Protein: N-acetylglucosaminyl deacetylase, LmbE family
Organism: Trujillonella endophytica
Amino acid sequence: MTPPLPRRPAEHVERALCVLAHPDDVDFGSAGTVATWTAAGTEVTYCIVTDGDAGGFDDTPRERMGPLRQEEQRAAAAAVGVTDVRFLGHPDGRLELTLDLRRDISRVIRQVRPQRVLTSSPERFYERIGASHPDHMVVGESTLRAVYPDARNPFAFPELLADEGLDAWTVPEVWLGASPRTDHAVDVTDVAELKFAALKAHVSQVGHRDDLEDFVTAWMTRTARTAGLPEGRLAEAFHVVYTD
């Protein structure tokens, strides 16, 4: 039997949805990629599962941290052309794989009706343990379960249709960030400044780091080299999962 030809992601999609655990997750891993999508005319929505109220490095009162990080994420999103930013309000640092979380993500998928979903890998990345925050893995697994089977199954969470009028929706592609099995790289060299602008909007998280650009540039340089891109290029990498 002849093996199937390797698949490639769609060249362009009309709508993409990024589902991440915390404010700044999408910007560290994917803001350059998002900038290339919005520049090409893709409408991108961010769905942030928590408000990030367990983060920060200073004496900002805890009750202020969540609203502050929401403001920072909206500013970061605007830097890469995203205006639709939604927060689910689940507890930062205490996410669990629950039916409620799957339903909430399924709801947003049915509202946005994206042809592509970007989220975090549910697999632990032992060589980059910092990427495998428990919240990241829970959101990745919950999002995959929301994509298949929940959002496409009209009989899953029937209240979404009966009470909210949200029809089932099938997502063809899921892009997993921080995966130990990446198979697709995006050259983000030409939009790197937009990524840096997005990251710098998260003052409560990165304001203490004078080396932020150097650190992120070195990271993207290694990713580009691993992907076989020419010297001097910068990249973000993903594991692309096809759902059909």
About this structure: The radius of gyration is 18 Å. The CA atoms of residues 44 and 82 lie 6 Å apart. The beta strands are 15-20, 43-50, 84-90, 116-120, 173-177, 184-187, 235-242. The chain has one domain: 15-242.
